[in-house]
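Moderator note: this is an archived Q&A kept for reference. The question asked for a predicted structure of one protein chain; the sequence and the answer are reproduced below.
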Amino acid sequence: MTNPEQVKQLIEGFIDPSTEMSLAESKAVIKVDGDNVTVTLGYPCKGYQDELASQIKALLADNGVNADVSVGFKVIKHKVQQGVPALENVKNIIAVASGKGGVGKSTTSVNLALALAAEGAKVGILDADIYGPSQPRMLGTTQRPESADGKTIEPIESFGLQSMSIGFLIDEEEPMIWRGPMVTQALQQMLGDTNWQSLDYLVIDLPPGTGDIQLTLSQKVPVSGAVIVTTPQDISLLDARKALKMFEKVKVPVLGVVENMSTHICSQCGHEEHIFGAGGGQAMATQYDVNMLGSLPLDINIREDADNGEPTVVKNPDGDIAMAYRAIARRIAANLAKQGKDYSAAFPNIVIKND
């Protein structure tokens, strides 16, 4: 096989084991130039690109093609809700929701954001929980944001992640006794008045529920996709379904479900037990025809690392748990890559003036 088109079709049909999608599905751009093959993925894959290149090279060799294969990535801006203007310097916004508190959503959010960064993307995280901000503690910083012009504020950088939270602006123990309109205004200001620097992804850590913050997010914030975090427990799944249906109603694509605390392995004897039940996340994903992005264990290290301000992805970057977060992050980004491209920048603004 020497025909470039045949080589391209062969590569397009390759199932990427990391995402369980064909390269054609995830919108990979494939170029064949003689014995050189270049594959450009639509999602970050820094920790995986050499392995993927070897797998593609082996596939070609099995079909009689000897080629040098290189794999890279380029993150583009994807479409959002109709009529919602894009955010400057942010290509894609990913909302992480749970519907219910206590399922480890904030810990999952920060580790997934750090995992995307570890895979080579420029990433930010916005803590949208005005009443109970937790990202400053998890990112290990109490730094106050600065403003050069008195109108906008600079994001706080920690572990290579750009971040913003109401927790950076108030004392940790100060309660936010605000009504709904003030809360939604604070969210819009933190989002729009922060000088985000050329982000590929902005992860928004949503508070539990389907109230004012979620409604503002769906109507006024350009969200590219949403991720639902749940535990296998029935009562958690009940609320997670409400969050999923909310995003469906407001036309925000649900990129998939993450099952947190899926299994517990005893640190003393190694016994594995499904404390909160088993298979709930997969059942939910199957019922609503969305992707099961992966499962995370109930592990004391995840909790301790977050409480100590050094999340597991940076505390133990080569460990099994960090690798699980990175695999889920790649699946999230790959599913987003399947979405349509945002062409709004290609159209000029039309202004009608009365002379």
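Archived answer notes: Residues 304 and 311 are 8 Å apart (CA to CA).
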